[in-house]
Amino acid sequence: RFPFLNKVTRGVYTPGSIVKPFIAYAALREDVVHPSLEIEGGDALVIPNPYTPSAPARFADWRRQGTIDLREAIAFSSNIYFFLIGGGLPEIAVPQAGLREPFAGLGIEKIARYMREFGFGKPTGAAFGEEVGGTVPDPEWKRQVFAEAWRLGDTYNTAIGQFGFQVTPLQMVRAYAALANGEGLVTPRLTPTEDMPEMD
Q: Which of 13, 34, 39, 101 gets the most CB atoms within 10 Å of its CB?
């Protein structure tokens, strides 16, 4: 319905599981997880509700994953693995996922910081087309938009690229390029070829 919208620079989309490698990077940098850490991926991560015990919060995976490590969690896109390294496992929910004690995840502040370091939430600086910044959700954003406090479930959903997370395709391509080049973010640019006319 918007034929003149440049979706590459001005279309914002919920990224979903393609943010998981960036969450893994942050967790490795912060010593939250070791690549060999194995987690038992069931159907869902269940967080008890101390106020209404009959209504626990369930955070589902898309399939039962079995016991997997970090590399397999990325390869098979395990939600539960990334719920845990993103938001941790509170004492009230132990034992679960093969964990016999509470597990400290990144937390939303570190997640948001690393996502912004990868260029999410702001324009890339590309010299072609008008850009939008997108959204990296955090407690301040939720207060402004919903007038509500941040909850553990919000961290879980942000860690798998859901909730209020919004990115442009160009931001995502640039972020993956940073992972690949090992040298940080680049400014996207168009380079004309012999078969491509010069652009004004």
A: 39
